[in-house]
Design goal:
By secondary structure, the protein is α+β, with helices and mostly antiparallel strands. The protein has 20 helices and 25 strands. A hairpin with a 2-residue loop joins strand 21 and strand 22. It starts with 9 loop residues before the first helix and ends with a strand. About 35% of the residues are buried. The C terminus is likely disordered. GO terms for molecular function: ATP binding; ATP hydrolysis activity; ATP-dependent DNA damage sensor activity; mismatched DNA binding. InterPro entries: DNA_mismatch_S5_2-like, HATPase_C_sf, MutL/Mlh/Pms-like, MutL_C, MutL_C_dimsub, MutL_C_sf, Ribosomal_Su5_D2-typ_SF, Ribsml_uS5_D2-typ_fold_subgr. Belongs to the DNA mismatch repair MutL/HexB family.
C-alpha cells in the first residue's frame, strides 16, 4: 500500500529549509557581514577556522535591543520589512527576508552577543534560549575568541557560529574537501562587493589554526574626502586582490540613460583570467553568463591586450583567449522586487530590465574600446567563426581543362567535410620549411588538379608567375569515373590498408586505398609529410614524458636565488598547488622575505628551488613568463579545465596510455612539446626514399590521433575517388606523372 500524504513536523521543515539557505561556510559569513553592513557598522572583524568550521563576526553597528534579540534566528523575523510591505517599495538593504540567521542556527551552534547605545549592559542570545543580561563576557567565550566587552555608550554585535553542519555529515564532508584557498578567494569576492559601495568600512579578517590567529586581510577605511569615486574603486580592488594592475592603466567609465546610470573602471591592459570582471546592480552582483560572454566577445574581436606593454616573449606565448580586461561597473537603476528573489546568494542572473540594461552595458564597453583606439568595425564584428556560405563548386567536368601548372587557386578540401583552421604563430613555420628572415605570409602546399570552393574567406592576394609551357604528357582520364564530391570516412584501420604511390613535390605522400568509401572504388589521398612526422614525434614525446611523470622520475635542475613576486590573492593558490607543480618538475615555496628583507604589504615571493630540464630549456631565464604560465595552469585547475595529477601519480606505472592524461598536462608543457615536435619533424623540401615514406605511413597508423598535426591541422586529406571496375588508373608511381614543380602551401 502506498504511503499516505501527511504534513511534515516543524523541526523537519526547518532543517530542510536551512539546507537551502546555508550551503557553505563562506555563504554563512557573507550573510552575517551583510547584516553588519545593514546595521551601519564602520568596522567589521572576522575570525574563521576552516578546519573546525567555526567563525566569529564582530561589528560596531547599531546593535540589537534585548527585545529584538529574542526574535533573532526565528524564521522571517526581520526589521527591514513590515506587514504593510508593498512589492513596489524599494529595498536598500542586503537582507530583508529574515532567513539568514534562522538557516545558520539550524545547522550550527549559534550565539549572538549585542549591545545598543541606550543600554549599559550587553545581552547574550544562546541557541534556542531567551536573551540574558551579561555584565561581562563569559570566561569561556572571552578566552576562546579574545573578546573585548562593549564600552558604555558604544554599540555592536558579535555573532559566534560553531560546529557548522554538525547535523549534516555529508554537507560537512563536502565542505571539508573544499580547498582553503577557494574559500579565501570567495571571501575576498564578498568583501570586495561590499567595499565597492561602502569603501569606508574597515574589514579585518583573520584565519585561526590550532588556536593561532593569522591576519589575512585588512582593507577598507577609504573616504571620499581625498579620493574620487573611480579612484576609490581602484584602491579597493588593489587592497583586496593586490597590485594586479597599475592605477594608471584603469580608465574611468560613466554612462547614463534616463534612470539608469553606469559608472566604474575598465583596465586598458589585459590579465590572464576573467575572474576580475564585476558588474553590480544596486549593490547586487550580476552573474549573467550571456552579458559577460558578449562583453568578452567585444574585447576579443578587437584583439584586446595584444599591444600591452609586457615582455614580447611573454605576449607571444599568451594564448589570445587568455587576455581579459579587469572590469568593475556599478549600475544604478530601478529593480523589480522579484529581481531580489532570484537566488539565495542575493545575486541577479537576469534583471527584469535586461532588454534595456544589456545593450546599455555593451554600449559602455563599445565606447570604452573606441576611446582606446579600436576600430568600430572590429568592435561590432563577431568573434565566433561564422558558418561558411554555400559552396559554389566549379563544374567537375572542367577539371579536364585545368593545366597542372595553372594559376587557378585550387583546394583539396571536400566541401561536404568539416574542418577548422588553427591559429599559426610565425615560429611554427620554421619546422615546415627551412625558412630564414621574417615571414610576411605563411604558406601551405596545394595540389593543382582539384577545384576550389568559391569562398572568399580562403582567398589570399598573391601574384603568381605565368605558367610555362610543358611537354609533360598528362594521361586522359574519363570524367565519368571520377568523383571529387563524395564523402569519405577515414579511420585508424583505413591507414593500415593504405599503399604508398609516390612523393609529390617533396611535400606530400600520394597514397591509395581500395574500397575506402565505396566498394569497387579506389581512393587517392595525400599525406602531409611534415604534419605526419610531427604527429609521430609528438606522440612519442608525450608518451615518454608521461612515463617519467607517473613514475616520479622527471629530470629536474636545481636553481638558487630566484624569487618571483606574487600578489596576495595568488598566495594561497600557489601554496595549495605546491605539491601539484612538484610532480610536474617545478619546485618552489611561498615566502614573505626576499634576501632577508621582509615583505611589503600584500606582497609575497615564489622562491624557485627546482625546475624540469625541458622547462628550463624553454624558458631559460625568463622567469616572469614561467610565472604567467603557472598562473594559467592554476586558473585551469581552479575551473576544472585541467585535472590534478596528484590523484593518479604512482597508480599506473605500466600498461597505460599517455592520451588518457592529456587533461592533466599543463598547457605550457603541451605547447612546448608541440613546438619541439614541429621543429624536429621532416620539413618540406626533404626528399624521401620509398622506404622512408612507407615507414612514415606505418608509424602514423600506430598513432592515437593520426589525422592532425601537433597544431590541429589535418595530416591526411582525400583527393579523388576512382571507379576502377572499368578503367585502370595510370601508373602514378611514374615520376613523369608526379613531377609538379608549382605546388604551393597556404594557410
Amino acid at each position: 500500500m502506498a504511503a499516505s500524504i501527511h504534513q511534515l513536523n516543524l523541526n523537519v521543515t526547518k532543517l530542510l529549509k536551512s539546507q537551502v539557505l546555508v550551503t557553505d561556510i563562506i555563504n554563512s559569513i557573507r550573510e552575517v557581514i551583510q547584516n553588519s553592513v545593514d546595521a551601519c557598522a564602520t568596522h567589521i572583524e572576522v575570525i574563521v577556522d576552516y578546519e573546525k568550521l567555526w567563525f566569529v563576526v564582530v561589528d560596531n553597528g547599531d546593535g540589537i535591543s534585548p527585545v529584538d534579540l529574542g526574535y533573532v534566528s526565528n524564521l522571517n523575523a526581520t526589521s527591514k520589512l513590515n506587514n504593510s510591505f508593498n512589492p513596489d517599495d524599494k529595498i536598500k538593504t542586503y537582507g530583508f527576508k529574515g532567513e539568514s540567521l534562522f538557516g545558520i542556527s539550524k545547522v550550527s551552534r549559534l550565539n549572538v552577543v549585542s549591545k545598543v547605545k541606550d543600554y549599559n549592559s550587553t545581552w547574550l542570545r544562546e541557541r534556542d534560549c531567551p536573551p540574558k543580561i551579561m555584565d561581562s563576557i563569559p570566561t569561556n567565550l572571552k578566552s576562546k575568541y579574545n573578546f573585548v566587552h562593549f564600552e558604555k555608550g558604544k554599540s555592536g554585535t558579535i555573532v559566534i557560529v560553531e560546529e557548522l553542519f554538525f547535523n549534516l555529515p555529508v554537507r560537512k564532508q563536502m565542505e571539508e574537501n573544499v580547498p582553503d584557498f577557494k574559500k579565501i578567494e570567495a571571501l575576498r569576492l564578498n568583501i570586495f562587493q561590499i567595499l565597492v559601495y561602502h569603501p569606508a568600512i574597515q574589514f579585518d579578517i583573520y584565519t585561526s589554526t590550532n588556536g593561532i590567529q593569522t591576519p589575512l586581510l585588512s582593507v577598507g577605511g577609504l573616504t571620499k574626502s581625498n579620493l574620487s569615486d573611480h579612484l576609490l574603486l581602484i584602491e579597493s580592488f588593489t587592497n583586496v586582490f593586490g597590485s594586479i594592475m597599475e592605477n594608471k592603466k584603469f580608465k574611468k567609465v560613466n554612462l547614463r540613460l534616463k534612470d539608469i546610470s553606469i559608472q566604474g573602471v575598465i583596465s586598458k591592459a589585459s590579465v590572464t583570467s576573467k575572474q576580475y570582471q564585476f558588474i553590480y546592480i544596486n549593490g547586487r552582483r550580476l552573474i549573467s553568463n550571456d552579458i559577460f560572454r558578449k562583453i568578452n566577445t567585444a574585447f576579443y574581436s578587437c584583439n584586446f591586450g595584444s599591444e600591452d606593454n609586457v615582455n614580447a616573449q611573454i605576449r607571444n606565448n599568451m594564448k589570445y583567449s587568455s587576455r581579459y580586461p579587469i572590469l568593475i561597473l556599478k549600475v544604478s537603476c530601478s529593480l523589480s522586487f522579484f529581481d531580489l528573489l532570484q537566488n539565495n546568494s542575493k545575486d541577479i542572473s537576469e534583471p527584469s530590465n535586461y532588454s534595456i540594461l544589456g545593450p546599455l552595458l555593451l554600449k559602455a564597453i563599445s565606447s570604452f574600446l573606441k576611446h582606446q583606439g579600436y576600430s568600430e568595425t572590429a568592435i561590432s564584428s563577431k568573434s565566433t567563426l561564422q558558418r561558411p556560405p554555400n559552396f559554389n563548386m566549379l563544374n567537375v567536368n572542367t577539371i579536364s581543362n585545368f593545366n597542372p601548372r595553372g594559376c587557378t587557386r585550387p583546394a583539396i578540401i571536400n566541401p561536404a567535410s568539416t574542418y577548422s583552421l588553427a591559429k599559426i604563430i610565425p615560429k611554427e613555420i620554421h619546422g615546415m620549411y627551412k625558412a630564414s628572415g621574417s615571414l610576411s605570409m605563411l604558406t601551405r602546399p596545394r595540389l593543382s588538379n582539384v577545384s576550389l570552393p568559391r569562398n572568399n574567406c580562403f582567398i589570399t592576394k598573391k601574384k603568381y608567375d605565368m605558367p610555362t609551357k610543358s611537354n609533360l604528357l598528362v594521361p586522359k582520364i574519363s570524367m565519368e569515373n571520377l568523383n571529387c564530391l563524395q564523402n569519405i570516412t577515414i579511420t585508424e584501420n583505413s591507414l593500415k590498408q593504405i599503399h604508398f604511390i609516390n612523393q609529390l613535390d617533396r611535400k606530400f605522400l600520394l597514397v591509395k586505398c581500395h574500397n575506402l568509401s565505396k566498394k569497387g572504388y579506389l581512393d587517392l589521398l595525400v599525406i602531409d609529410q611534415h604534419a605526419c612526422d610531427e604527429r609521430i614525434k609528438l606522440e612519442a614525446l608525450l608518451g615518454e614524458f608521461m612515463h617519467t611523470v607517473l613514475n616520479k622520475s622527471i629530470p629536474v635542475t636545481p636553481i638558487n636565488d630566484i624569487y618571483l613576486q606574487i600578489e596576495i590573492c595568488d598566495k594561497e593558490a600557489f601554496q595549495f598547488y605546491e605539491g601539484e607543480f612538484k610532480l610536474w618538475g617545478i619546485g618552489y615555496s611561498v615566502v614573505d622575505t626576499y634576501e632577508g628583507i621582509h615583505k611589503k604589504n600584500n606582497v609575497y615571493y615564489l622562491k624557485l628551488s627546482t625546475i624540469s630540464t625541458i622547462v628550463r630549456e624553454k624558458f631559460k631565464t625568463n622567469w616572469e613568463k614561467l610565472k604567467v604560465n603557472l598562473l594559467q595552469h592554476i586558473d585551469s585547475l581552479r575551473h576544472l579545465k585541467k585535472l590534478s595529477i596528484k590523484s593518479v601519480v604512482g597508480s599506473k606505472t605500466k600498461d597505460y596510455n599517455w592520451w588518457e592524461y592529456t587533461n592533466y598536462i599543463p598547457v605550457f608543457y603541451l605547447e612546448l612539446f608541440n613546438s619541439k615536435a614541429c621543429r624536429s619533424a621532416i620539413m618540406f623540401g626533404n626528399e624521401l626514399s620509398r622506404e622512408d615514406c612507407n615507414h612514415l605511413i606505418n608509424e602514423l597508423s600506430k598513432c592515437h590521433n593520426p589525422f592532425q598535426c601537433a597544431h590541429g591541422r589535418p595530416s591526411i586529406k582525400p583527393l579523388l575517388q576512382w571507379n576502377n571496375t572499368n578503367t585502370e588508373l595510370p601508373d602514378l608511381s611514374n615520376e613523369n606523372y608526379c613531377n609538379f614543380n608549382n605546388l604551393d602551401y597556404e594557410y
